[in-house]
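WARN  no MSA supplied for this record, continuing single-sequence
INFO  ligand: zinc ion
INFO  echoing inputs
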Amino acid sequence: MIPQEDIEKVAAASDIVEIVSGYFPLKRAGTVYKALCPFHREKTPSFNVNPHRQTFKCFGCGAGGGVIRFVEMYENVAFPEAVRRLAARAGIRIQEEPLTAEEDARQKLRRRLLSLHAEATEWFHRNLLRTRAAQHARDYLKKRGISAETAKSWKLGYAPDSFSAFSTFARENGYHDAEITASGLVTWKEEGDSRYYDRFRDRLMFPICNEQGETIAFSGRVLQADAFGGKYINSPETPLFTKGRVLFGIHKAKRPMIEARAAIVCEGQL
Ligand code: ZN
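INFO  complex generated
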């Protein structure tokens, strides 16, 4: 819970004109500012921001409120998250109720896993773009009509044909075995010599992102017809990833979906 006092502090420190202008341009019109409404489709601006009252109001669709409400609606996040984002922007430390030791550990692990996934995304992506071993993956993309720009924009990647290349990379970047295993990118095997092995091998990698665009899991597509495992394998459920709660591409589709008030749901990443 965020104390009321902190909410007020954050609202007071966040000028609505400045915040809204950070998202899209506003035009001065007398004592107010105007723009095309981001919450409905229109050709003439009926979205007003009043700097004196620190409010916004759309006379087309009726959306309106204060600065926190604006961030809630525009970013499509819940109230506490809107407050946190504005607080971070204003450099205000909000004193949420103290965490239990367990919750604190859980959040620390989540942060470590997010950063591991971010590094993994870049690593797989570099492999796809730059390594000779990924030639067949690049050929596959070409065959499917995926341009280099699309591959870059979606941070597509390539997991090398190796049982240990990724885990070695992760260890070299300071991640502990417990974190690497918790990420689901590496699996642990009881018998044999190699206790850890990379889950994704010789696969085209699709980062799966949360609504904020942070990678929380991967989906790996097979590149050889006779490869071991399914055509697609996904990250298992982890502290970051709950399968039933994620839609691939939501971070890019969220705004257009709100603008169009419609969505087309397709099966498969491609
Ligand atoms: Zn509107």
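The chain has ten helices and eleven strands.
INFO  checksum written, moving to next record
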